Each structure stands twice: as C-alpha cells, then as structure tokens.
Amino acid sequence: MASARDWLDRIRRLPLPPRVRIMNVCGGHERSITMAGIRGALPHAIELIPGPGCPVCVCPEEDVYQAIQLALNEDVTLVAFGDMLRVPVNAPKKDPRSLEQAKAAGADIRPIASPVEAVRLAQANPDRAIVFFAAGFETTTAPVAAMLAEGVPSNLSVLLSGRLTWPAVAMLLDSETPGFDALVAPGHVSTVMGPEEWRFVVEKHRIPAAVAGFTPESLLAAMYSTLRQLIEGRPFLDNCYPEVVRPGGNPTARAHLARTLDVVDANWRGVGIIPRSGFAIKETLAGHDARRRFPSYEDPSRKRAGQMPPGCDCARVVLGKIYPNECVLYGRACTPRHPIGPCMVSDEGACRIWWAAGVRE
Ligand code: SF4
After folding, report:
1. Which of 79, 178, 231, 318 suits 113 as a labelling partner, its CA being 20 to 30 A distant?
2. So what's the architecture of 56-164+250-300 in CATH?
C-alpha cells in the first residue's frame, strides 16, 4: 500500500486544471482531512469541501424540540447519542433550548453510546417508558433497525430521525450550482449500503467518485483517483476502501433496514424536504414508534426550512456552499463552549472539527 506521501507526490505530478473542488460527505472524512492537515498539503488548485456529512446537524429542529417536550411533559426516560444533547433549538429564553437544558430542568434524559444500552435500560426498568431519540445516517440507523428486527421490550420506543446520505448529494447535483467537481464517497455508509449507491454520481452526472476509508492514505488515494478520472475525462466509481466496502454492502444490515423501516420524504434542518431521504418506522412496529405513541408532541408549525438559530450559517456549511470560518459567528459568538448552531455541537459538524483543529479565523 502506498504511503500518504506517495499519494501526495502522485497528486502533485498530475496536470491539474486551475481549480478542482472535491466534496466529502462524511464527518469522519472531514475530521481525518482536517486533523491530518491534508488541505494544506495539496496543490492550491484543489479545494476540499465538507458537504452534508453530519446527521446531528441536519436533524430537523422540530424533532429536537419534540424530544425536549416529550421528555419534559411525559413520565419517560429519554435516551440519545451524546452530541444530540447540546443541539440548540429556537425557543423562548425562559424555556429549555436543548435536551441538556431540559435535563437541568428536571427531565430524565440520559446519553447513550449504542442501541444496546437503550434495550438494557428498558429491560432493567420494565415499568418505565423509555424513548430512544435516534438521529443518524445509514450507518447509525442500521443498528437501530437491527434492534427493532430482533425484538425489543414493549416499554421501549424510538423517536427516529434517520437519514440517507445519497439523496442530499443527488439534490446538490440536480441543482444549478452543485458546487463540486468530484466526490469522495463515504466509507461507512458504503459498507452498509454498498458502493453501488453512488453510481448515479458518475452515470447520471459524469462526476468522478471514489469511496474512501478514514486514513490519510485511503483519502488521498480516493482524491488521486477522482483527479485522474477528471483529467482523463473517464469518470467511474472507484473503491479505495476495498478491505471493508464490498459490493452489495452488508446484506444483513440492509435486510434489517428493509424489514423495519420505510424510506420517506424527509426534512433536513435548514435545507428543507429532500425526497426519499429519511427512514420511518413501519406500521407493523407502531408500538415501538414514539411518533405514534406520543403524537401530541409533534408540532407541524415548526416544520419550516431555515430553522437554524438566527445568524447561524450551518445550512450553507452543510451544503458545502461556504467553509465554516466564513460564518460571521465562527469563533466569535459561536465556539464549542457556547455553540450557536448544531455544526459547532456535533463531533461530525464541520465547524466543530475546524475549531478543534485550531482554525481560528
Ligand atoms: Fe452555525 Fe456556529 Fe457554524 Fe456559524 S460557526 S455556521 S453559527 S454552528
């Protein structure tokens, strides 16, 4: 396997056009790129653009609000992945504006790291309703689907905010200004769903694409592949993570997803509805669907595009339209200690990743 330095040398020897924009759609990729200093090591012609790779950032504001209200007003224990707890919503100053603040106000809210913990909690407390607020892309939603498929205690329900990544990329490519010339496709998502999900990028849009893993070597190999495809005018879907990503993905995980969840139109925070980009729990599992069990906390009036906090440019960051440090609040009003928007909260948010890597202006 070639080293990162080898791949960098190969990229530097390519006859590059004056400007090439390569988008990634995975918070893990963005973290590896930023922490390894790959941006600064590449020729100036190459721009690396973080795209829609943070599920917490795009989780609709009304879903977070619903989780907060449910936890405050029902006799339940609400569990969620840790970084969701600090995601802010728009609410009057006197009201809790995040799950963390709702917890401080007395709601029983607990962070968990996996669906197994939610099941264990439900088993240990059979007389108490447990609600699992599960936001994530395919990689995180697949274990939730497996949990539902294998059978869960009757006192456990799921407030699901699952999203599929490829429809967001399709939406960008169908727009008049996609904003990128090549795609580094997400390794973990491809592990579950199969690399074939990204074929439309090359077949329909003639945009070079390569699936990458999370090491600098794998990411640089994928970038080199897309650059060569671009230069040679020969786009194809490359797999630069073959040790993990297999044709067809993970058949068991896909079967669990198909058995328990429907694919539906879904709202992305600050972006709006993207067709067939969300997961919803099937009717047959209605007893485990928190949206059906606690319908009164669904507030359709909150369903609107542009629900980022005032002044927060997170939606444009998520869509790769601006870099994190181009938001006027970055590092000023908005820091990880005092986040304004979800992109500064989540470990997969581009703003937080850039800040953690020392980008200060
Ligand atoms: Fe939103 Fe903060 Fe990022 Fe600006 S820096 S886009 S306010 S999360």
Report:
1. 318
2. 3-Layer(aba) Sandwich (3.40)
